[in-house]
Design goal:
The chain contains 9 helices and 5 strands; from the N terminus they run H-H-H-H-H-H-H-E-E-E-H-E-E-H. With 209 residues, it is of the alpha+beta class. It has a 5-stranded antiparallel β-sheet with strand order 2-1-3-5-4, with helices on one face. Helix 3 crosses helix 9, helix 4 packs across helix 5 and helix 6 crosses helix 7. The longest helix has 16 residues. The two termini are 22 Å apart.
Length: 209
């Protein structure tokens, strides 16, 4: 299945809530959900049929995929890895998604959205422990240092980030040296520190059938 490249505000409207897919725009009056809260489509405001339990589980999975920008095959691999790890499968799944390199770059404030962070990684601007990688799904571990490729520090974008990084809020399970823009994964994130918009149990139930 190809990656969705259409208007992301439609995704938020479809789910009826802000998924913060467009960075700073989501906090402004230009947000699509603020301007038009009805679902997309010609009959978006019409009364819709009641969704089955299976449909709600599918919607929750699709919402998680949209938030983290993951394709179906990738998402299933993350789920299979979560099943193999000890502990609650749902929390393990969210933890797998949070530890992706593109998400770490986003959480550290290198980008305003996960989609933008994914582009940074694809273009080779981000490093893990000093080694450049262009794989957004690369999994980080506690102790890993995520920074910038030396060649990328001369770009205009890097200069913009150095000026805006002070206003960014960094999760407690990460540490950021704002002078060098190098972040470290301190520990695995707890459930309270991960996305609260996702019902991970519904996703587990979807895959368990």
């Amino acid at each position: 299945m190809a990656r969705y490249n259409g208007p992301v505000c439609r995704i938020c409207r479809r789910h009826g809530e802000k998924l913060f897919l467009k960075g700073e725009r989501c906090f402004s009056p230009k947000c699509g959900v603020e301007k038009r809260a009805t679902p997309p489509g010609q009959h978006g405001s019409a009364r819709r049929r009641k969704i089955s339990e299976r449909g709600l589980q599918l919607r929750e999975k699709q919402k998680a995929r949209s938030i983290y920008g993951v394709l179906e095959r990738q998402f299933r691999r993350h789920y299979q890895e979560a099943v193999r790890r000890p502990g609650a499968t749902g929390e393990n799944l969210l933890r797998e998604l949070e530890l992706r390199l593109d998400n770490i770059a986003y959480r550290l404030g290198f980008a305003d959205s996960r989609k933008q962070a994914r582009q940074l990684v694809l273009h080779g601007h981000v490093t893990i422990n000093g080694r450049k990688t262009s794989v957004p799904s690369a999994r980080t571990r506690p102790g890993d240092v995520v920074g910038w490729d030396p060649g990328s520090k001369s770009t205009e974008y890097y200069k913009v980030v150095t000026h805006t990084i002070e206003s960014k809020s960094i999760p407690t399970w990460l540490d950021l040296d704002r002078a060098t823009l190098a972040g470290r994964v301190l520990t695995l994130p707890e459930r309270s520190e991960m996305d609260s918009h996702i019902n991970e149990q519904a996703i587990v139930e979807y895959y368990s059938r």
